[in-house]
């Protein structure tokens, strides 16, 4: 069984506090939209799909016990709270797209005269509750499509040596994971020799979170420093790289955890296939290319400190962008729940 980072049942929401991992596995209660917003902002929950799911579920938690005077009052509350949740972190698009879809749904329910206020609330809440199951099913499909596509480039009896970055597993999604889902599928098919994964400085999602998941699932693995990727590719014959995404532009340019771009450049130099694994909820069809993606900058203390321990000299100036954009030209394929596409195929797929 994979880890369950988000527990939700009938209006009760708990998340595994990712700030305390890997040393302390503690669930915290999310009792309101404010709690949801804070958990996302402080990265108690992180990873593009998990941000959207926890944000939207925090709205369910808040709406459940409330009664509203009118359908319009309910729709206004929904709209205000979703627009607030979007402000928590700017780069991942999943929360924004979920908010847009849910606001459209709320307007439809409000204007449908055959639906009363209680039905409106129930139908709205149930649409959010379905996100959990859908995300797990999408991730399993991503894992299977990705494993198949990557294996196609190798002789049948091959076992692969994969590289991944950041954390894209059960802790970043409703379960199973995107890029880590592909690794899980390769492992389940007995086609994985080893997965190398980066520490992912400065926040160490690799060393803290991916390590925690790989150990939990007994998947063969090796941790490397971010600065070791070129040497790794030069000496260890890496079969392919697979990473996640926070936002994919319609031309295939992809924002993901800082450091992804330099791994893609290095993979290109060593002729190692470089894949993005992401659900359709990470594709922003409104932006033509990656120059339109806002890159979040995080506090300097995330670079100068690890927890309470200061590493850098006091008073040092820092630049701490949380993400970078990998150009489509460096991407071999985008693995989605509907199949694997070349970046230039994305526009047609989204339109179809
Ligand atoms: C399935 S998670 C995909 C991405 O969100 C992931 O690769 C990533 O960049 C996470 O960044 P984070 O800052 O930890 O939220």
UniProtKB/TrEMBL annotation:
Keyword Amino-acid biosynthesis: yes
Compartments, record wording: Cytoplasm; Nucleus
One GO biological process term: L-methionine salvage from methylthioadenosine
Gene Ontology cellular component list: cytoplasm; nucleus
Pathway(s) it belongs to: Amino-acid biosynthesis; L-methionine biosynthesis via salvage pathway; L-methionine from S-methyl-5-thio-alpha-D-ribose 1-phosphate: step 1/6
Reactions it catalyzes: 5-(methylsulfanyl)-alpha-D-ribose 1-phosphate = 5-(methylsulfanyl)-D-ribulose 1-phosphate
HAMAP family in UniProt: Salvage_MtnA
Family note: Belongs to the eIF-2B alpha/beta/delta subunits family. MtnA subfamily.
Protein name (database record): Methylthioribose-1-phosphate isomerase
Species annotation: Ignelater luminosus
